[in-house]
Amino acid sequence: MHRLALSFASIIAVAGLAATSAQAANLGLSGDLGTTGVGVHLSVPLAQTLNARFGVNYFDYSFNSSTKDVNYDAKAKLRTFDALLDWFPFDNGFRLSGGVIYNGNKIDATGKPKANGTYTINGNTYTASQAGQVDGRIEFKNFAPYLGLGYGNAVAPNKGWGFTADLGVMFQGNASTSVSNSGCNAPAAICSRLATDIAAENAELTDKVHGYNLYPVIRVGVSYKF
Asked: What does UniProt give as the signal peptide span (predicted)?
């Protein structure tokens, strides 16, 4: 709860800075919540039916996951920055959006021994003290194209408060994975075999996340024109 409060505090701070800038021009500010986390976006009119939109999205959450061999305590860290163009083909609230997203999303994971205090990795069994700590990470390409549609024009004429929504896809590509261990407390031959088994576990994790190259973006929120 403490970290969640800090996340919201960070977003509020960004919103405050953006609002100060927006008051100096015909700009719109929106706050939203969805699959990219908690977000703040600034809309800038470029033409009657075209806006530029820039935003930051942030959130952390914990969950449990596993491969065939290892159970993990995992934490997803959502960190994305949007640079989008919103086109309003019917000159109303409906929009088509496209652009690029800086994708800092990642998942960090720590292996959990079985109830009997052992790991079985690649068919070989190790005590928790022998294996030490097993860590995994899943990351994505830094830049991802985005296409979507939505509703809401934060800088429409005579606009005050409004509703905003996005439905789209971030093309993040296949993930890269890494699994490592530290603190092996066993004879050198066993630690060497463990290193080989950890590499096999990384291959298994890679296979598990293969195909998750599209990230759904669903967001709803409110906007305000200054």
From this structure: 1-24
